[in-house]
Amino acid sequence: MAKKSQTSQPYSFVVDVGNTHTVLGIYKGDKVVDHWRLTTRKETTSDEVMNRIGGLIRFSDIKPEKINYVGLSTVVPVLERPWTKALQALLKRPVQVVNSDNCLNCPIAYPNPKTLGADRLCNIIALRNRGYKNAIVVDMGTATTFDVMKNGGFAGGAIIPGISASLDVLTEKAARLLPVSIEWPSKVIADNTDDAIRSGLMYGFMAELETLVAKIKAELGVKNVPVFATGGWGKMVVGHTKCIDTYDPYLTLDGVRLVAIYGNVAAEFDRENEED
């Protein structure tokens, strides 16, 4: 990647809008210097978004005028416009939105690349920049995605329900099962209903995780493939399995950062229609 020459340590403001949570970060160079985690609001306007992020920035040591680059990744299509407009208005910079047309020439094996989630693409972009050719990323959020990198590009993967989503479905469909806190039980064979739910939820998820990683590695046919974990539930899981090599909570954000700096398709809107 050819570097854009503005400063040796540019500041980047990046946003990853997920189905449940939205993660924001400020980078100086390739280091996170500030970050926040918000609840994703599916119905919002650019003014409301600007009010939320403007309040956060006011308490940051990094002021808007210091920001050189802005990037946005979202898996909620209806939120792309209000978030982009808010970021443009607040930071006075073009917004690079991550998608298959703005992915730093990352190869995508999907027949229709536009259907690929931006967060999954960001994970591979981040690893490409670090010099990896083959890797697996397990991104544990509302959904758990298995993103497969082969020969430097996005090769495909798998998607299963996330930990919290699985719990929601179970307790919604079974009248006698009530929601429980998500934590590791002391043993697999539980002696009460709450821990029985936790046991099935957590150890069942681990069985899915380890099986899918093993099958993906076998199908790839590449030796010593590193496995990365990221996402909101990643930190809770990594200490209970040997199939994860590295936990990186900022992997997706790092991909957004790279597109913010090196992307060349800044978002544009029809000025005749300013409604969100």
Question: Any chance you could write out the topology, listing elements then pairs?
Answer:
Elements (H helix, E strand, L loop, with lengths): L10 E7 L3 E8 L2 E9 L6 H13 L8 E8 L5 H12 L3 E3 L20 H12 L5 E6 L2 E8 L2 E9 L1 H11 L19 H28 L6 E4 L3 H4 L8 E2 L3 H12 L14
Parallel strand pairs: 1-4, 4-5, 6-9, 9-10
Antiparallel strand pairs: 1-2, 2-3, 6-7, 7-8
Helix pairs in contact: 1-2, 3-7
Structure, described:
The chain is α/β, with parallel strands linked by helices. The chain has two domains: 11-102 and 256-262, 2-Layer Sandwich (Nucleotidyltransferase, domain 5); 113-251, ATPase, nucleotide binding domain (Nucleotidyltransferase, domain 5). It is 33% helix and 23% strand. The protein is built from seven helices and ten strands. It has a five-stranded mixed sheet with strand order 3-2-1-4-5, with helices on both faces. Strand 4, helix 2 and strand 5 form a beta-alpha-beta unit. The longest helix has 28 residues, at 193-220. It is globular, with a radius of gyration of 20 Å. The model has no long low-confidence stretch (mean pLDDT 93).
Overall strand count: 10
Low-confidence stretches: none
Helix content: 25-40%
> Structural class of the helices, strands and pairings?
alpha/beta
Give me the side-by-side strand order of the main sheet.
3-2-1-4-5
CATH fold name of the largest domain = Nucleotidyltransferase, domain 5
What's the CATH H-level homologous superfamily of the largest domain?
Answer: ATPase, nucleotide binding domain
